[in-house]
Request: fold
Amino acid sequence: MNKKAVWGTAAVLVVAGYGGATWYFGEQAHSAYAQALNDVRKLLGPEVLVSQQYTKGFWSSQGQLVLQWTPPAAEEDEWDDEDNAAPAVAPRPIRITVENTVRHGPLAGWRPAAAVIETRIGAVEGVDDNMRKAFAKVSAPTLTTVRHLTGSHDMAFAWPAGEVGEGADLVRWQPLTYQMTLNADRSRLSGDFAWPEITVQSQPPADDADDNDDEPAADAGEAERYTFAMQGMKGDFKVHFQDGLWLLAPGEGSGTLGKLTVTRARAAAGTGAAPEPLVALQDLTYGVTIARNSGHLGWVSNLRGTGSVGSVALESVELNETVSRIDVEAVKLVQKALADAYKSDTDKSDADTALSAAAEMPGVASLMEAVPQFVAALPAYAMKLTAKVDGEQGELQYGVEIKSMPDAQQVAEGAWGPALLKSGALHASLRMPKAWLPRLAQAAGDKAPPPQHLEAMLGMAQAQGFVQQDGAHLVSAVRMENGKVVLNGKEIAVPMGRQ
Reply:
């Protein structure tokens, strides 16, 4: 056999072998796609996934899903002659078509993989003209999933820059991207994200001047516009899905935030007027860790940065929070309640309105079952906020915990509030430099009181037991437990504490 025949035979075998492999991975991709559809049905409910089709090809396949939600019916504002509410207006169902392009392996999209799936929203039906106008500058996100030969997945989520809203109320953002990896048994998810900027602008309506004829018409222009902005967000995360937990799955995350600002401006001043800075934090770093200890969950979070609040410059600011003893089974019941409530709110017609309460009962029942389990675990929360201003550091601490099971009779009677007050404990403490007082007064728009007046006011507060002086600092601590309130080491009479 000559060389041409050998190479020709080899080429035929390679093509045939690749074709067989492509057919095999195409079948595997179809099987995985069908399994994913079953997962979607379980999560969203069979009413949401109204149709699906899958067209198999040799090199690639096409899948299409149609998801449908029906918004809750809204009652008319008008009332008829018999003072009965007008019948609810039947809302139009919203249909979203999701397109999936599945490229078969073993070289899917010119990379070694079992399959590459590109998912995007093809069409949205059922929204009115106002909604379409508000979302005219919004592009649909895309998700690219690479299913590796080992069974693991890489996912890339991309949401292009956009803007939603109109007039003074709008949300504007730069592209948001996620890069994620899911292991073969879908128990561990890790990844990172980046969001260069998001801005939220809102203008609450001004006080109605028509209610008072004496009000000058100019007061109608006193509306204020608030702007909240975050810039330079980056972070990474690791999550371990175990024992059916997804709402508070164990894991950790950390990241940075370049700048966070909140400003206020008078709408009548126009776009050229400089807004008033309310909050300006920068160089922020954060971290959170969720851990499981047997049947309990807990988490620790922290946030650090610098900036200013109003006219007060913060050399540093730090917030630490700790949550402990959250019952795992109670979290699962909350998960079930959320899923049941979501499923029961889909595709209701006017004839079903009378049955809506019964449809929501499974979620309500799960929540009611979760509450005593949550309380029995004796959960606790603690927070510590520290800040440094002009070289002086102050701190605020707060905490609350349930120390024993509430009184069974009060719980049976539905008196959860008094029962928790009796079985729980609350504590708070403040340590603040005296030098901050003039700065705080100025930040509030008041004149700083003369030193002698300030000392007189502090003396009165100390004589009444509200604060104590510790050198150059003011300190105060309060604790509420067993129906008693202790302020700076002395029990004080509080009507609530006697009940």
The CA atoms of residues 438 and 448 lie 5 Å apart. The longest strand covers residues 276-293. The mean pLDDT is 81.
